[in-house]
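Bench notes, afternoon.
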Amino acid sequence: MQDLKPARKADAQAWMKENVAEQKKRYAAIVKEQEELGPEREKWVAGFLKIIQTKGFNVTGDVRRIIKPGEIPKKPKGMKKHQVVF
């Protein structure tokens, strides 16, 4: 069993550093895009909640169930925006 990691070659270390930098850049772009979608996402959620309270949703086949306002979960206190996990 090996307790220590083998030393990385300089070119492998440089490649890793470059790759991590590229990934962080892509991640930052994704986060920015998701944050910009925030107001539109709020509209989507409001529309969805309205639909399931008026038209309902399919439980199975053509059986629909309308969700009562009391069954709709409330937004947690202190939650300023949706958190998208990716």
